[in-house]
# Entry
Amino acid sequence: EDEARYRHAAALLADIGWRAHPEYRGKQSLNIIAHASFFGVDHPGRAFLAMANAYRHDGIFNEAIAPEIKALAPPRYLERARVLAAMMRVVY
# Structure
């Protein structure tokens, strides 16, 4: 199933912005994932990956994060990205 693959990929990409300053990690991670040349991931899936990592660094209640990226994903993916990000914030 695609959602399981996306969750696994988001976990693997969780530290993609490790070199960035903590204030910019969320935005930088989002930009790296949004512009990366992944294959086997559609636009809603890419939005899920980007938002999960952005929410991880910037907080799950930040509504101002990348509205243009959020527009690509269905509400179900965005809610699951928030849940996954909350879990990653606890684990990391």
Notes: The chain has one domain: 2-91. Residues 2-91 form a domain with the Hypothetical protein af1432 fold (CATH 1.10.3210.10).
